[in-house]
Amino acid sequence: MFDFAQARTNMVDSQLRPNGITDGRVLRAFETIAREDFVPEAVRSIAYMDGDVALGGGRYLIEPMGFAKMLNAADIEPGDKVLEIGAATGFGAAVLSTLAGHVVAVESDINLLSAARENLKDKANVSVSENALPEGFVNGALYDVILISGQVESVPEALFSQLSDGGRLIAAIGAGRVARCYVWTRSGASHTQRFLFDISVAILPGFGKPADGFAF
What we know:
Layout: H1 4-16, H2 24-32, E1 53-56, E2 59-61, H3 64-74, E3 81-85, H4 91-97, E4 102-107, H5 110-119, E5 126-130, E6 143-152, H6 157-160, E7 163-173, E8 179-187, E9 190-199
Parallel strand pairs: 3-4, 3-6, 4-5, 6-7
Antiparallel strand pairs: 1-2, 7-8, 8-9
Helix pairs in contact: 1-2
C-alpha cells in the first residue's frame, strides 16, 4: 500500500525546505493537507511529485514547490481575506484555509467546481464561487491577497481594483516553460510591481496577452 503520509513528509523535506520556504505555517499546511485527495484516483501515487499533476480538460494541480513559494511570498496573515483564482479541485484553497481568515476560491470549469465544493465542504472559512477566472470575484472584494494559481500571460487590470489598500496580488507571468513570478502591492489608486523569482507551473487558460507595447 502506498504510504501517502511518508510521501507528504518527503515532499516537504526534499522540495520545500531546501528551496527557501521559511514560513512555518506554509510548511505545516503542506504536511497536513492530503494532496492525493485532490487528484484523480489514477494519478494519486504521483500527487507529491515535483511537477504539475493533470486533472483533465487541460487543467493541472500546480507543483508543490511553485505554489509554496507563491504562498511564502504572499506573507498571508491569519486575519487576511484571500481570493484564489483557478481553484481547480480545491487543494490551494485548502492550504490557504490554514493561513488566512477567509478564502474565496473561484473556478470556471463546472467539473472542477463540483470537485472543489465537495473537497472543501468541511472548510468553514472557504467559499467556492463560479465565475470567469480573469474577472476574479468582485462580489467578495476587497481582498488582502489575490493569488492566481497558474501561469498567465497578463493580469487583468480589473483584478487590481479588487485589492484592499496595501493588498498584494501574486501571479506567474509568461507564455512558455518558465514564467516570472511577481507581487503587486496596491497603494491608493495605484500599484507597484516587484519581481520575486522564476517559476515553472502549468498555464491557467482564459487570460489574454498583454496589450501591444506593454512589457514586464
